[in-house]
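Order emerges. One example.
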Amino acid sequence: MNQPVRNPVRQLRAALRALLALTLVCGVLYPLAVTGVAQALMPGRANGSEITADGEVVGSALIGQRYDLPAEEGDKSPGPDLRWFQPRPSRGLGTNSVNTRYTLLLSGATNLSGDNADLIDQVTAAKAAVIRDNSVPGHPVRPDRVPADAVTSSGSGLDPDISPAYAHLQVRRVAARNHLAAGRVAELVEQHTDGRVLGFVGEPRVNVLRLNLALRHLVDDAATR
């Protein structure tokens, strides 16, 4: 026997009530609850791990920034500003013509294999640049002292941190460019080196943005003396 057809108006009303209830719970109450808990327990992380300087947001502790010279007309690849500590290479899946602080639009790795000719050329060129830029009179950089993170991008392409080895490799160049004592700059690196999470997870790291902000204060202090 055929079942009687339900009133379509009644079905529509039930569907609308379900839609409104789910919209209220999933679209309003749940987001408000999650946001409230995040703001109460970890407001810094909930707001993007912002880093401020002189009362202004200058970046995020989770996203790397480049420190390049002003681009000249027709120059698509401005050179690094060697007064500052430099981050890892930033190679990823796309470019962003709007975000001038970083060249990536999409987060991700190049996924090139270790024997890929393009990757080999990129690493070779990056290594030569690191040696050239960071060698100072009396203190040349030996090729075997260049760490891997100095010539390769991270899995995300947006890594804000570098290894302590790469940071110390840049100390003499940064000190010379800013007319500072190399020992004082090295102390700055040590002060901004974070250890392994919980003492055993990951590797020691240096946040480049935080380090360069401290360097700027050091340069300003030296200039006022």
Observations:
- The longest helix spans residues 8-41.
